[in-house]
Amino acid sequence: MAFFKELLQKNASTLLSMLFLSGMPLVGVSFVSVLLYQNQGLLEQLTLLEAVLYFVVMAVLMSFALMPTTVGVLITGFYFGWSGFLGMLAAYALASLVGFQVASTLDHGKMTAFLHRFPKVEAVMRELKADSWQLIVLTRISPVTPFALMTFILAVVGVDRRRFLLGSVVGMLPRSLFFYWVGTQASDVFALIRNPETGTIGKILVAVLVLVSLLGLYVLFNNALKRALNRSTQNQLKNQN
Asked: pTM here?
């Protein structure tokens, strides 16, 4: 109880930022839906410069949780077809970097300094950082994991920036490919945003990705906890000798 009380007191700005990132996607989807409804030809026949601007704007929206990544992929697939897929990946990478930098700046090492006061928790987090590649991929592979929120958490944990970027792109690739394909097959963008029809195979794929993410994270955390406890026990034995 003392840990959580002090966590709230010492990291209020960080936790409020995480809460903000959890709720903003609904606002973003509503805004984009209204914008596209009022300007249905807005994304048709864009020039090269306008297309580049679109992907930059998409990256900014995703990095601040104003656009769920799945919705962004669906819309891009619908309007751009497969010619826009690389642009979408670039937008992912840019959104990841922007979100990572913003989170690092807002937190400014406060969470790491706070955890230093709780050796057991810090030990587990240190073990997780050692497995950061798996941690990043597993948090990205699930379609239901909030993109911007997980970016914020991973940045606060202190994972390596380059590994974070590569792991984010690799982890999101399977679901991105699938939902991008769904977007290319749709005939109505508004129906697509409200309820993307993925079919039985799609639902199974989504369920499998979520299951892989949850089970993988459970195993990762469990192994990190065991290693942290083993190291603590070994250190105690050394001090006694």
From this structure: 0.79
